[in-house]
């Protein structure tokens, strides 16, 4: 069957199946798939506006007992190279973010078995006391399950208490590929795909929202990629828990997965486009310029992405795998304009804070830090 049949059905508003997705992955007609993804994106976002958020990724600890084979960032518990950031350092990083117009803190770390729920609730309360308007888009499903385990609580109890203390939403890190076949091969101790999905559903139940992610390049099959998307789509149908979808490529350098050949920009763009076509119930798709670089990030705006993601003032996890792309706010404005779009700063809920006029620059800018 020609992929034209699948693409035309998608354009007509019909849901494509997992089998359809596999056929798209098998196709080399990436530009054609991208054009349809772009048209579908425009149905969601008819105005030529590309959004971005000014935020910072604060990695509060690198102690982790999950030992993912693809991670170059973590250190085992009690390692001399491990750390838990002092609260004052976290406060300083947040203030620096606010000083350049930032609105979001994406705070994530390892699954640290020595940190129980009170550490997180005390920290969140202290942050909100000092910075009541900062949006805490923080912690991942794996961290939530670790907190629940060491605190002898359910994930609903943990998420409810975190939300009361100041957690506003939860990023969808750690999804990788939502099949046990791949997870058991590359991250045997990490949360199962069911646990990942459950935590996102529960986050919505207690009054928050989250994002969904996908990482390809683990040697997973096309069928597994399609199943990953199906499970995300089903969860979104059931709860509406996802505000956005973000995918990127495995960065194998400096990790135990160096044997896997790093996928290409073309692989990334194809995956973005197929995801946009398949996930017909998620409005926002973020570009992953941090892993792919600014130019590919710009190109992804023609393959289904409507958002350039975060300025990412600080990033330590991907850079530990020897992949570091850095842009500041004014560079983001330039890249968006080069793509023929109008740049607009948003908040975490995708409300537009400010639209930048032609040739207008950001008054405050930053140098990305590590």
Throw out a few tags for this protein.
3-stranded parallel beta sheet; 4-stranded mixed beta sheet; 370 residues; 12% strand; TIM Barrel; alpha/beta
Summarize the entry for a quick read:
By secondary structure, the chain is α/β, with parallel strands linked by helices. The chain has 15 helices and 10 strands.
How many strand elements?
Answer: 10
Give the full name of the CATH homologous superfamily.
Aldolase class I
Please state the average pLDDT score: 91
Query: CATH first level: which class?
Result: Alpha Beta
Query: What's the number of domains?
Result: 1
Order of helices and strands: HHHEEHEHEHHHHEHEHEHHEHHEE
How would you describe this protein?
This protein is of the alpha/beta class. It has 15 helices and ten strands. It has a four-stranded mixed sheet with strand order 8-1-9-10. It has a three-stranded parallel sheet with strand order 2-3-4, covered by helices on one side. The longest helix has 18 residues. 49% of the residues are buried.
């Amino acid at each position: 069957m020609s992929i034209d049949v699948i693409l035309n059905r998608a354009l007509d508003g019909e849901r494509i199946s997992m089998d359809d997705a596999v056929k798209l992955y098998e196709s080399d007609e990436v530009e054609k798939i991208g054009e349809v993804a772009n048209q579908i994106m425009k149905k969601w976002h008819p105005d030529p506006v590309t959004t971005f958020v000014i935020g910072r990724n604060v990695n509060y600890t690198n102690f982790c007992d999950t030992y993912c084979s693809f991670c170059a960032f973590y250190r085992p518990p009690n390692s001399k190279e491990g750390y838990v950031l002092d609260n004052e350092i976290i406060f300083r990083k947040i203030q620096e973010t606010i000083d350049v117009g930032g609105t979001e803190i994406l705070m994530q770390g390892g699954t640290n078995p020595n940190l129980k729920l009170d550490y997180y609730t005390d920290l969140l309360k202290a942050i909100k006391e000092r910075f009541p308007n900062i949006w805490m888009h923080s912690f991942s499903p794996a961290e939530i399950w670790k907190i629940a385990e060491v605190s002898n609580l359910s994930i609903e109890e943990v998420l409810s208490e975190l939300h009361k203390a100041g957690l506003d939403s939860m990023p969808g890190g750690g999804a990788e590929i939502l099949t046990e076949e791949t997870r058991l091969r590359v991250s045997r101790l990490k949360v199962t795909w069911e646990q990942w999905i459950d935590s996102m559903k529960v986050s919505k139940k207690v009054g928050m929202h989250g994002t969904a992610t996908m990482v390809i390049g683990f040697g997973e099959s096309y069928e597994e990629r399609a199943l990953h998307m199906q499970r995300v789509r089903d969860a979104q149908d059931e709860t509406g828990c996802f505000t956005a979808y973000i995918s990127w490529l495995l960065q194998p350098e400096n990790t135990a997965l160096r044997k896997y050949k790093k996928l290409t920009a073309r692989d990334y763009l194809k995956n973005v486009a197929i995801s946009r076509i398949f996930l017909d119930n998620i409005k926002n798709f973020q570009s992953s310029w941090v892993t792919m670089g600014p130019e590919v990030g710009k190109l992804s705006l023609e393959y289904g992405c409507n958002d350039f993601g975060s300025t990412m003032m600080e990033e330590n996890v991907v850079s530990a795998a020897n992949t570091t792309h850095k842009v500041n706010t004014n560079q983001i404005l330039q890249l968006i304009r080069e793509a023929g779009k109008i740049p607009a700063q948003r908040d975490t809920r995708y409300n537009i804070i400010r639209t930048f006029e032609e040739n207008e620059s950001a008054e405050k800018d930053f140098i990305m830090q590590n």
